[in-house]
Amino acid sequence: MKLILLFMLLLFHEVPLRAESSPEEDWENFKKSKCPITQVNLDYETSVTPEEDEIDSDITYYEKKCKQETLKNFSTLLSHFSKVDSLILLEECASAKVKNWKPLEEKTKQKIFTLSKFPKFEILTVGDSDEGISELTRKVTQVWQERVYTFSNFYHQRSLLWLGEEKEFTDEINRVLYTDMNEKRKTNLLRKLIQDLEASNQRIYHLFQYSSRNPFQAKSLYEENQRSKETMQRFLQNVSKEDEISAHQKEKLESFNSCLDNINLRGQGVRLSGFLGFWQDYEFLNELTPKIKGEKSQSIPKFLKKTIYNSHHFEGRLEKGLNACRALAQLKLNDE
Predict the structure, then answer these.
(1) Greatest mean pLDDT among 105-119, 185-199, 218-232, 303-317
(2) Of 214, 266, 245, 258, nearest to 315 (Cα)?
(3) What is the mean pLDDT of residues 142-158?
(4) Residue 13 above 50 pLDDT?
(5) Where are the domains of the chain?
(6) Highest taxon of the source (predicted)?
(7) What is the pTM of this model?
(8) For residues 80 and 85, what is the distance between their CA atoms, to the nearest angstrom?
(9) What's the whole-number mean pLDDT along residues 217-240?
């Protein structure tokens, strides 16, 4: 574990820590409290500097070359799920003949619908008469739910590394549960999956704890917390106004917004970036309607909002984020 921590510090910059602590103890405490506590000092300095994203630059270039408005709109939608796919579409649009625009529209629309299912990963439930297998099934489902509802809030889920790993876990769990195999083999595979999932969750938490990276290039933890709070509250307020949000969800969003006001941003160990994965994955939905031009293309943003806001994935992450916020707000933390 110490070697893993050392590797993370080297990879994500050396970070001043609050005090000597055991990563293993921190992890065990988090599993019990569900309260995310960072080990980064209040006055840390980050050496991260903004760099132009090469893909964004290419997208801007080919967007000017693409002369079909609907395909440009589709590219805007695609960019929130996969910038690479967005760029490929614009390149195809720039070189395609007019007669090929319609087939390209249909192909892209199908891709968008497929990608919009990403937030809806779901382990298919299956009954098993064996008590041992049933218990392991419940356990692996619980750890998987922690991954997609809790730990996805710690990172940008559209990162290919984490998203790919999440898909692999889900597919493998379903494969094991639905494959006809002897009890011993299924038991061993389920135990291995539980171990791998827990190890992956732990890695994500420690990256949150020790990394000085932040989306704002903030120069201190307090500044980062201020920016995180402003960003989250603006996002929560905007989402609560969406037509596709239910009254029940609106109440939770408003509670989350109020909860952030009750957290001491200078409190020892407080780091609100533990909620930013939730913002990063869903904030694009707020921006879709004004960005998409033409009445013809407006049906797709409406479809995406209805699909995603009503998914168990969105509901689960909102619930876990609110619970973590309440845990932080209730802590009696000393100022740094």
Answers:
(1) 185-199
(2) 245
(3) 81
(4) no
(5) 53-116, 121-210, 217-331
(6) Bacteria
(7) 0.78
(8) 10
(9) 91
